[in-house]
Structure formats: C-alpha cells, structure tokens
User: Fold this.
Amino acid sequence: MTGNRSYIRAIVIDCRDPERLAVFWSRLLGSTIASRTGPYVWLTTRGDGPVLGFQRVDEPTPGKNRTHVDLAFPDPVAERERIEALGGRWLEQYAGGGFLVMADPEGNEFCVIPQGSVGLDSQGRANYLDG
Assistant:
C-alpha cells in the first residue's frame, strides 16, 4: 500500500506463552513461524493479509474477547475435531448463536465459519451447523 491510506499490518495476540500459541496457530492455518523478536513470535504471511503475531504478557486473558477472528474452512464441523486435536476447545456457551466458536490453548476466542456467505436470521444467528 502506498500514499496516506492506512491498513491493518498485523494482528497481535497477547498471551502468556507466545511460542506455544504460535505453534498452535501455525498448524491451524498451515503457516510457519517466521521470526522471534523479544517478546514476539511472528507467523509467515500468505498473500497481502496482515501478519499474525504473539506477544508475551504477564496477565492472563481476563474474559470474553472484545475482538476475534473468523477463520473460513470448507467444512467447519470437521474442522472442530482438528482444532481440538491441536489443543483448542469448543466454547459451548456460544452454541445458541449458531456459530462454531472455539478457543486457542490460552482461551483466545475465534469463529470457524464456512467459506462463502453465512446466512443469518433477523437476530444475527447463523445456521450453518444445522446440517
């Protein structure tokens, strides 16, 4: 990007163990660890998207994330099993919204959605897990 336009250069996840989370996310996304600098571990980028990094902090995740990422996969239901095998977990408390909400090993939340459009009802609930 050039000129005065701003863009998202990186998404950084605060965590207690950046190495552990970088390994989890690199396996989940089919990426590799690109570098380590001070308290940061960075993944390689694909395309022109933002870099994903992990920053060591002393504090644990305090509660529900106010920001999360949506990861698109051909079969979200099948992906849940793979995520759990990598050390992630399903967050059942969000099941009523119709989204597959998962957490990484430190509790950072993310949604697993189908590729393409996601149909929503008038309340914002999805239905791609219904069958």
